[in-house]
Write a structure and sequence with these properties.
With 343 residues, the chain is mostly helical. The chain has 15 helices and 3 strands. It folds into 3 domains: 94 residues, no CATH class; 70 residues, Orthogonal Bundle (Arc Repressor Mutant, subunit A), CATH 1.10.10.10; 158 residues, GntR ligand-binding domain-like (Four Helix Bundle (Hemerythrin (Met), subunit A)). 71% of the residues lie in helices and 3% in strands. The longest helix has 31 residues.
């Protein structure tokens, strides 16, 4: 049953229960204020004709003993509690399926990107972003119980998320619990080094391939990047930027290169998201240069010119220090925001 059905059912029960409880309370049978309330709420058109006068007392209720009334009171009370509990559980499930508050500011990772993700993946993506952003500091021990409560999930998705992050060396699974390792500036640069090696290899393979369709596909993605710049949408720009490079890497059909990229992508995605959010706020004019760098990529693929390919790679990857600086500033901004909220 969906959350909407529970809302309607809860509303009906609360209405009927309120009428019943009022009718059996001290202002119930025998009083002018309560005697007509229950028939007004629940009786049918036939019963209205049967008891037309508002002062007429419901004969069924008049025959009930106080003991029966107390049992009915308890029954309705328990029924309402059960429905409220079920309704809140449905809301929590909907929340983590992306049905409610998709763009909540509480999340660093865009919830619209997680429409098909499992509960464990959702937790992993958000924890990864918080660690990369510096909101969860290195050396912090993560409690499964606390994380389960924070994310309103069972411990099973939490364990799945922690295993994923441990495989990425972001955390360490120790006997005392999961300890945050974080990422140093050197490790971030090394990740970009691996990406440079991948894309250099891919470019070499593209020289012997027909790249017309690839160039057309990349041009469409580039147009979406331009639209994101126009509407100042940092997250959409980051999404299209990642997609641009993913299409290039996937175009050669190399399974092991794809495997390396898939392992690298989640952490890389976090870097790009945070750095682009900073650039859109602090260095918006620089986005034109980034767009031109991607145009250079497309020209290099079209012409299969090695010199142009090398230039395009340098234009993109010589900017790594700038991205690391953006990431550092993003961490500072987020930390400052958290401190202000705590105050």
């Amino acid at each position: 049953m969906g959350s909407g059905s529970y809302v309607r059912q809860l509303g009906r029960v609360l209405t009927l229960g309120a009428g019943f409880l009022l009718s059996v309370s001290e202002v119930g049978p025998g009083s002018d204020s309560g005697s007509s309330f229950l028939p007004f709420c629940v009786r049918s058109r036939t019963s209205i004709e049967k008891f037309p006068h508002p002062q007429l007392t419901n004969p069924i209720l008049n025959n009930k003993s106080n003991k029966t009334k107390n049992k009915a009171f308890a029954f309705y009370f328990i029924w309402i509690i059960i429905l409220v509990y079920k309704y809140t559980r449905i809301l929590k499930m909907s929340f983590y399926k992306g049905d409610v508050m998709n763009d909540s500011a509480e999340f660093l990772y865009p919830q619209k990107w997680l429409s098909k993700a499992s509960a464990g993946d959702r937790v992993a993506y958000e924890l990864r972003m918080r660690i990369i952003a510096g909101l969860i500091e290195s050396g912090t021990t993560l409690s499964e119980n606390k994380l389960a409560a924070d994310f309103a999930v069972s411990r099973s998705p939490i364990r799945e998320a922690l295993r994923t992050l441990a495989a990425e060396n972001i955390i360490r699974l120790e006997r005392t619990g999961a300890v945050v390792a974080g990422l140093t500036e050197k490790e971030i640069e090394e990740i970009y080094d691996v990406r440079l090696m991948i894309e250099t290899f891919v470019f070499e393979r593209l020289i012997s391939m027909n790249t017309n369709e690839l160039a057309m596909e990349l041009s469409k993605v580039l147009e979406m990047m331009k639209v994101a710049v126009k509407y100042r949408d940092a997250d959409e720009f980051a999404y299209q930027d990642i997609l641009f490079h993913e299409i290039i890497i996937g175009s050669i059909g190399h399974s092991y290169i794809q495997l390396i990229w898939n392992n690298l992508k989640p952490v890389m995605e976090g870097f790009i998201l945070l750095s682009m959010r900073v650039r859109f706020k602090e260095n918006y004019e620089d986005l034109d240069r980034i767009v031109k760098n991607h145009e250079l990529y497309i020209d290099a693929i079209k012409t299969k010119d090695r010199d142009l390919m090398i230039q395009s790679l340098h234009e993109n990857f010589d900017d790594v220090q700038g991205k690391v600086d953006d990431l550092w500033r993003s961490q500072q901004m987020l930390s400052k925001g958290v401190k202000q909220q705590d105050d």
